[in-house]
Amino acid sequence: MSMLDQHGYAARSAPQLGFGRRLGFGVGDFGINVFWNMTNLFAMFYYTDVIGISNTTAGLIIFGAMLWDTITDPVIGVVAERTRTPVGRFRPYLFIAAIPLGISFALMFSVPMAATGAAATFAFATQLIFRTFYTLVGVPYSSLSARMTQDSDERGALAVHRMMFATIAGIVIAAFTRDGAAVLGNGDLHDGFRSVSVLYSFIGVAAILVCAISTREPSPGEPGGEIRPEPRIRDILRMLRHNSAFWTAFAIILVGMSGATISSKAVLYYLKYNLGAEELTGVTLLAVAVTIMLAVPFWGALSKRIGKRQVWACGCAIAAIATLSLWFNPFESPVSVILILTFGALGSSANYFSTWSTLPDTVEFGEWKTGIRSESTIFGAVAFAQKLALGFATLIAGLLLDGFGYVANAEQTPLALTGLKIMISIIPFCTAIICLVLVLTYRLDQQFHARIVQEIARRRENNPVESEQDA
């Protein structure tokens, strides 16, 4: 049975994960985030300013694809939970879906320069295909963190490795994409984005396969590897219904991702039109990504001293201060904006770390409350929240751009310029404040989680048969 150490945390009932497995897990998120960051940062811009699709139509394309995710995310979560293979429940999906994911990603940035209707149809179809394979990789990958270890601090270490590599992917996308597309396309962004996407596909697929090879799921008899009957759908729904810790985290992700998405969509336009500094796009995104990468280990270490919830609250507060500063910035120069965005990246890094180190703990919270354990259901629902927020926020961004009178590749009106500023400041400020309030209500800290893990272990030891039947 697990015991509590002098700090109130659960003593480890299994060996710590080796550096190789942590590293391999992190490399997987590098690959996933090559696809995620490119899509999140440049898909809207690619559709509107390269292909010539209208703002609202581009937003509807991405939103419609995200609605498709509302079906695929929970379905893949349930299917993955019921998967049994010699290499585990989740790793097989990384092996199977990585290459199709890369191919669909390259197709998504290969929209033909056809009539608007034909281009929009091709864009929507490739979005749907890409989103399907992204889910087939993303949900099982995220679920791995809860399967690989039940120790909260180990999960924090996994989150640090994950965020470090995710941020490196962001650095690659930020530093190379815009200029790389111009170079590879010989000044033609249409050809350039296609070439860049093919290059990224090879890199992303390779990283995901490295993760699949180097990670390992627990075997029967090891902590987290117990063979349990497959939970029924109604039992899974009951676990979700009673998992208050998960729903708080779900709400934080939904709100926070919505604000961050609207801001990230607008920042490219803001640099180009408000500041007249389109050439600094790569520098700006690079500064943000490097700051996130350097700050993640700091937040990981700090969470062991003050707790994950406190780190999460700090991140939300920093994000709120930074976004409000963008609105009241008296200089509105490229340097001042880059400095403020870099400061805000400190908050983003805290939020990313807290999200991915805390979510696995909600798996045990649900098991403690109901006797039902389902890692992939939790992470499938989180993927749904992310994509719902991304799709909805992208649609809102498109509608706002049209509402403010934005016209691609033209001189913008004062209203359009003000609208872009609102989108990178006031809107994300409001969502950061809402997230801060929600974080302050979150009660599943490391000590509480340690007691939960101990109680679950005690139940299994005292009545293993009943425990498995309940599960």
Determine the N-to-C terminus distance: 19 Å
| Total beta strand runs | 0
CATH fold name, please? Growth Hormone, Chain: A
Helix content: over 70%
The succession of helices and strands, N to C, reads: HHHHHHHHHHHHHHHH
> Which class of secondary structure composition applies to the elements?
mainly alpha
Protein name: Major facilitator superfamily (MFS) profile domain-containing protein
GO cellular component, one term: plasma membrane
Keywords: Membrane, Transmembrane, Transmembrane helix
Organism: Hyphomonas beringensis
Can you walk me through this structure?
This protein is mainly alpha-helical and 471 residues long. It has one domain: Growth Hormone, Chain: A (Up-down Bundle), CATH 1.20.1250. Helix 1 (19-51) packs antiparallel against helix 6 and helix 7 crosses helix 11 (334-370). It has helices at residues 19-51, 55-81, 91-108, 116-148, 152-184, 189-214, 233-242, 244-274, 281-306, 308-328, 334-370, 375-403, 414-424, 426-440, 446-462, 464-470. The protein contains 16 helices and no strands. The relative contact order is 0.16. The radius of gyration is 22 Å and the shape is globular. The chain starts with 18 loop residues before the first helix and ends with a helix. Residues 1-14 and 465-471 have low confidence and may be disordered.
